[in-house]
Fold:
Amino acid sequence: MNYAKRFSILQKTLKGHSGPVYSVAFSPDSRLLASASKDMTVRLWYTATGMLQQTLGHSDDVYSVAFSPDSRLLASASKDMTVRLWDTATGMLQQTLGHSDDVYSVAFSPDSRLLASASMDKTVRLWDTATGILQQTLVGHSDEVSSVAFSPDSRLLASASMDKIVRLWDTATSILQQTLVGHSDGVWSVAFSPDSRLLASASRDKTIRLWDTATGILQQTLVGHSDGVWSVAFSPDSRLLASASKDNTVRLWDIATSILQQSLKGHSSSVLSVAFSPDSRLLASASTDKIVQLWGAATSTLY
Structure:
């Protein structure tokens, strides 16, 4: 059976945002989905019912959201040049962190103690989540930094930039480990495989590239989208890679064979973000059509 078919049925359509939805992220227990929008809000939804739980705000477009692995915090990144840290239990604002320009992406370290933020100011900043104190500023990209991701084994931080380059940094020393060159246009998104051995990068050049994180060697180039690829995400079991594109589709790829398994066509405009639920039951997609969609299997049976 085609494993990707378990995400082929549109389960729920989450409506409420009044602008394009730039980012989606599941809570560690898969019970909540956070969505970030141009409408200056972050919305938290119950995944079981599709009902809105709460709405959090910035003073400008919100580009990225991420839950801490310990479930205690939600981070949001905005055009207002701030990163906000929210208490997930109360919805109260805990910390406000800053860059000197728009902030495009946020990611927590596996132990939840660090937060990385990527900005139009060409830097990646590392923050102590408990104190809000800036720990490191990673400089090296020659253009805006669009995406950041920690490896699940905590050893690496990946950053993607409109300078067409992906960089891998040692999290312990903040020293640059690898420079991944190959994309012919800006890179919009990076994601590590659950075993930390692969890094996927998504680009405006319409391709997804899979890199060996130990050597920096290109393993595969996934070609199929007819426009730029905004976002990539690995399934929790590493079997699938989901990609979101300006061509209005979400595509599911078999990691072992690099073969396209499924094209999900539910959005009426560019798909900007994809995320798998940690329990492997759902795939979320967000679009400029202002809608978040939840995809799953025809039944709750796991196969």
